[in-house]
Amino acid sequence: MAAVIKRRLILAIFHICKLAGLFALARHLTRFDLRILCYHGFVLDDEDRFRGSLFVGRDFFDRRMRYLRDHGYTVLPLGEAVDRLASGKLPRDPVTITIDDGFHSVHAVAREVLSRYDFPSTLYLTSYYFEKATPIFQLAVDYMCWKSPKHEVDLSRLGVPALAQATALPLTPENRVAASAQIFAHGTAALDEDGRVALSQRLGEALGVDYARIRDRRLFNLISPEEARELEAAGMAIELHTHRHQFPECPVAAAGELRDNRAAIAPVLGRALDHFCYPSGEWHHTHRPVLEDAEIRSATTCQPGLARKGANLLALPRLLDDNRVSQIEFEAEVSGFTDLLRRFRGKTRMPWMSPPSYVEWVGVAPEMLMIA
Ligand SMILES: [Zn+2]
Question: What are the b/e assignments for 283-315, b being 16+ CB within 10 Å?
Fold first, then answer.
């Protein structure tokens, strides 16, 4: 409750600061800093009610893009923005739009919205499910456990040893989460992709959720090779995000993820890929030589902030935008106001002066793990 009151208070202060002209002042002071926005999936059905930190609706996304256009922000392709950031030649109020993972909904929803504003963008594509063309196992399992209309289910015949005794499992919110975790753990440890699809189908039958509909509507599928080419033709550059959505600290394993990711995507596009996004934003100092060896030109994190001249191009901050971010918070972020507060807090070391960002009270969303 205290967090809710604190948030409302800070949102009210944001509105006052905007009216007082502080957003405009912040925008002027940060006019040559790069704002890199980050999105994930888009809503085809009810995915935003399932996971609002990952899926945003068409109207939500359109409102954000319209705000950028109507307020005179300069949207640049990532490659150009990175080059101009390095050379100190960014135009005023520069913005770059990035989208992580490569959900089919990017092609079905975001492509049309971005085309309407003629905005270039970058899609960081993870490639295991790009090649498999099956629903992301973890999301499909989590979604079905969340969506089941039943109050009690028999999960004893799924073939998941941890659930062998679950003949009459009450579907409380806690049991839904626990069962999903056990099914995911078994599917990743003991089954191949065909086995995981078969397990998903059995789970859907047990829960009373139509798995075929999830698969056919491609709620949790990634784009196809054909869609990747269409996105590129529409101004969305495809770049790297690891093969299995993991980037281990071990340099050999990390290099393997980059190699597999490139091998899956480059032949489809017929060009080299040299920009990268850390899966789940997790990065480590051991990654730098791996990225340099692979001739990666830029790498983005989930660290909130604007990128200033002289920024480390292999650890660029971004602004995560999703359903938890209100319009006034979005405006505070892209104006640079929130970032100036972060810098001020960092310099003064005054812990009572919390940066009023959504990250502070809900935390950065851990993305789904995609494991082969
Ligand atoms: Zn990701």
Answer: beeebbebbeebebbbbbbbebbbbeeebebbb
CA 241 – ligand 1 centroid, Å:
7
Quick check: 153 and 129 in contact, CB under 8 A? no
pLDDT at 346: 66
Strand partners, 24: none
Q: Answer whether 137's CB lies under 8 Å from 187's CB.
A: yes
Q: Using pLDDT thresholds of 50, 70 and 90, give the confidence band for residue 356.
A: very low
pLDDT tens digits, one per residue of 250-278: 999 999 999 999 999 999 999 999 999 99
Cβ–Cβ < 8 Å for 269, 232: yes
2-133+221-362 homologous superfamily? Glycoside hydrolase/deacetylase (3.20.20.370)
Helix (H) or strand (E) run with residue 292 in it:
helix 287-293
240 CA distance to ligand 1 centroid (A)? Answer: 10
Degrees (nearest 5) of the Cα angle 291, 371, 320? 60
CA distance 9 to 17: 12
Please name the residues in contact with 357: beta carbons below 8 A apart, sequence gap of 6 or more: 304, 329, 333, 338, 342
Angle at CA of residue 99, ends 239 and 365, nearest 5°: 120
With 80 as the cut, is the pLDDT of residue 365 above it?
A: no
Task: Let me know: does 273 contact 296? Beta carbons within 8 Å.
Answer: no
Distance between CA atoms of 75 and 321, rounded to whole angstroms? 16
**Cα 157 to ligand 1 centroid, rounded to whole Å:** 33
Is the pLDDT at 80 greater than 60, yes or no?
A: yes
CA angle 219, 223, 227 (to 5 degrees): 130
Give residue 366 CA to ligand 1 midpoint distance, Å. 9
What is the share, in percent, of the chain residues with pLDDT greater than 90? 87
Alpha carbon of 30 to ligand 1 centroid (Å): 28
